[in-house]
Amino acid sequence: MSSAAIEYARSNYPRFLDELKTLLRIPSVSTLPEHKSDVLAAAQWLAAELTRIGMKNVEVIATPGHPLVYADWLNATGKPTCLCYGHYDVQPPDPLDEWKSQPFEPIERNGNLYARGAVDDKGQMYMHVKALEALLKSCNSKLPINIRVILEGEEEVGGEQIARFVREHPDRLQADFALVSDTDMFASELPTLCVGLRGMIYTEIGARGAKTDLHSGMYGGAVPNPFIALAQIIARLKDSAGRILIPGFYDAVKSPSADELKAWQTLPFDEEHYRLTEVGSSRLTGEPGFSVLERTWARPTLDVHGMPGGFTGAGAKTVIPAKAVAKVSMRLVPDQKPQQAFAQYKTYVEALKPDGIELDIRLIHSGEAIVIGTDNLYIQAATRALKKVWNKDTVFIRSGGSIPIVGDFERHLKIPTVMMGFGLPDDNIHAPNEKFHLANFYRGIESIIEFFEELAG
Amino acid sequence: MSSAAIEYARSNYPRFLDELKTLLRIPSVSTLPEHKSDVLAAAQWLAAELTRIGMKNVEVIATPGHPLVYADWLNATGKPTCLCYGHYDVQPPDPLDEWKSQPFEPIERNGNLYARGAVDDKGQMYMHVKALEALLKSCNSKLPINIRVILEGEEEVGGEQIARFVREHPDRLQADFALVSDTDMFASELPTLCVGLRGMIYTEIGARGAKTDLHSGMYGGAVPNPFIALAQIIARLKDSAGRILIPGFYDAVKSPSADELKAWQTLPFDEEHYRLTEVGSSRLTGEPGFSVLERTWARPTLDVHGMPGGFTGAGAKTVIPAKAVAKVSMRLVPDQKPQQAFAQYKTYVEALKPDGIELDIRLIHSGEAIVIGTDNLYIQAATRALKKVWNKDTVFIRSGGSIPIVGDFERHLKIPTVMMGFGLPDDNIHAPNEKFHLANFYRGIESIIEFFEELAG
């Protein structure tokens, strides 16, 4: 039997979708300075919406970076308090030429909504807002539990401002647990809670050879080439099988429990299907002796994201660039510490420095890996709510991605986080043609309503 | 005693300089499609100028690429015919933020003219035009020898159109020798003829892993990374000392003669000064056992110019790019053949292909290395002309750069080329703050006038 809130939601889905499209049209790309006003516009739009649905104390909190949005409703005396977190910033849309439709003009195709941010995280964050609206509008402007909402605009660039806010104002975010919807379901129709995240360090290695760009004809053979230097360094960061060669890097790595590994083996995962449909490469890579799930959830990895510098246009320019940069990140797992991992990496890279090259190795941002216990009462309530909506038992997974805020909540607010996400593995997050499966948008809203009602007891 | 032509030139230098500035303001960047109309504008401007000074049969010759400009004056019966070659296209100006003034707004500082193309090759090419004007205007519209002028707009992108024109219409360029001013003097005040050029092959290695960009958190540890693949390949193209590791690559390399090597040792070359003032790196690199002049003039080399793909903006984007490209070129020396060198390279790179990666290895353009004998009569006449203007004996050098047209002239027109250039080693060609020393612009014009008068006998 559906609650009044669920009835309300169901009769308002077309409007909910229209509103989400409006939000997706705002190109709130947090890493690009030219989109600063768009990020602000998204924050203001959300604040107005939170006010409209009946949340209290709504505030756009200015920061030295992009703003935070806060709202609460704290009149459910004796009931638990949930801190709803989401982010309204998005990744850059490039490479633009691989999008089938415009990244900031949401369009429906085959039951999916395509746009940058559709699922990461505007669409998922907006499920929280619409669940709150359904509860407030169907029950005399009351919620079954206490709610605080905190939204950030810098998740895609490291989340520095919210991290500071959590650290400096834990009182304003006081809660019993947090709810984050920024993860995937393991498979279509399979209700999923994520109980582990990898951490990360994102770095840049700047390499400089000559003082200025030089002609490769005149100077080739005498002058250090920073791209070749970076190639020599990168080639020694991992062996050909994919094992990271940084001394000491694996020392703190803690294996998942035997139970956890056993549960992962029962998940519906077809490596060949994954390779063909999600990845599309001629073969998968990575550390020998570990399954794909272990490699992406529970092992540290290292990737290069781009190598700016030199000549990147069409055709030929015969230049020995003075400088080049490699954007290199590592994913971390329990119990690796970001600062220690960066120190190990920096020491190793410096030791690989070729003659004639100066290096500048910088940490751009970092986040700690985290594992949440499956036995706490919020996780338990979430599994009951999911069972009602999806009629299936929840599976517990980890994610290879990083949500540093979950670590901040644990560290500074002393609360666990329920990661109840409704993305799908083929949603193309951070890539062209990002999408959100619309059935998941709707059932996600219902799952959150059921979760909050479940917690009211 | 100065000839009438030299008197004419000297009284018109301010105007000559103003005209060159006008030409330099046209951003004729041949490699960038958005500058196509600028390249055409430069061709048309030069054709108008050749007509104005009294050259005959002036024509802008359309091609499938950028146009050629032709002109002649062939009424000096019984005298030799010189084919004056130059190029009016330029390299892209990036990185723009390292220019002290605008690249396409020529400006004089300390006796130099700063602009993209100032010396490579608009300024040097324009010396020919102004020498011809001085001779025509001071001697009843007559020249002391026969002249054909051919100018191209694709030198910086491989010169495909002029190569085809030389191959298909050798009759229209029939001459006894060619004059090219696109090289440097060995040192300030040291008249120099260049009698050797390196060849080159310019390639792109495209690497593809996954079918689309993927999130490095979700997929890191299972998916091939094309930047890491390219780094692994590049790191194996040269050893740490700078020796190219492509099997068979050095087999065809011919050493300079003992006389040539001995003459190079007498040139005023201070390796530490070169490192500090021209290069500015903490040390020089390259094959052990060879001097800097040998390494840059007479040894093959390999450089990476840029690695487009992935995320190159400011900040962090956590993407495993589907594809990445490395722009890699090799300089060749006698008797290496470009096609064979490319075949050796391609075979070797394909053998280095990491698992899970598809490679696409393309030859963008190529040119053959060349050496000109110092005993031919045009070289001899050039040394006499240079002695008159500079009052010093000419030094014979090679250049590490490539001027493929010199090989085309030898192969299809069966003529030698006199490479009489007036650039200086610190002119920053292909780099920010390109300049031309104005005294060399003026004395270059006088040297060419003397050269043509010398050849009239």
Task: Sum this structure up briefly.
Chain A has 457 residues and is of the alpha+beta class.
Give your account of this protein's structure:
The structure is a homodimer of 457-residue chains. Chain A is an alpha+beta fold. Chain A folds into 2 domains: 4-197 and 369-455, Zn peptidases (Aminopeptidase), CATH 3.40.630; 199-253 and 295-367, Alpha-Beta Plaits (2-Layer Sandwich). Chain A is built from 13 helices and 18 strands. Chain A has a 6-stranded mixed β-sheet, with helices on both faces. In chain A, a hairpin with a 6-residue loop joins strand 1 (56-61) and strand 2 (68-73). Chain A starts with a helix and ends with a helix. The mean pLDDT of chain A is 95. At the A-B interface, strand 10, helix 5, helix 6, helix 8 and helix 9 of A face strand 10, helix 6, helix 7, helix 9 and helix 10 of B.
Mean pLDDT of chain A: 95
Instruction: Give the oligomeric state of the chains in this entry, treating copies of one chain as homo and distinct chains as hetero.
Output: homodimer
CATH T-level topology of the largest domain in chain A: Aminopeptidase
Instruction: Write out the strand line-up for the largest beta sheet of chain A, numbering strands in chain order.
Output: 1-2-6-3-7-17
What class, by secondary structure content of chain A?
Answer: alpha+beta
- The 3D shape of chain A can be described as globular
| Helix share bin of chain A | 25-40%
Count the domains of chain A.
Answer: 2
Major pleated sheet of chain A: 6 strands, mixed
Unreliable parts of chain A: none
Biggest interchain interface, per-side counts: A-B, 104 and 104 residues
Full CATH superfamily name of the largest domain in chain A: Zn peptidases
Euclidean distance between termini CA atoms of chain A: 17 Å
Strand percent estimate of chain A = 15-25%
Number of helices of chain A: 13
- Radius of gyration of chain A over alpha carbons? 23 Å
What is the second-level CATH architecture of the largest domain in chain A? 3-Layer(aba) Sandwich
| Topology, number of strands of chain A | 18
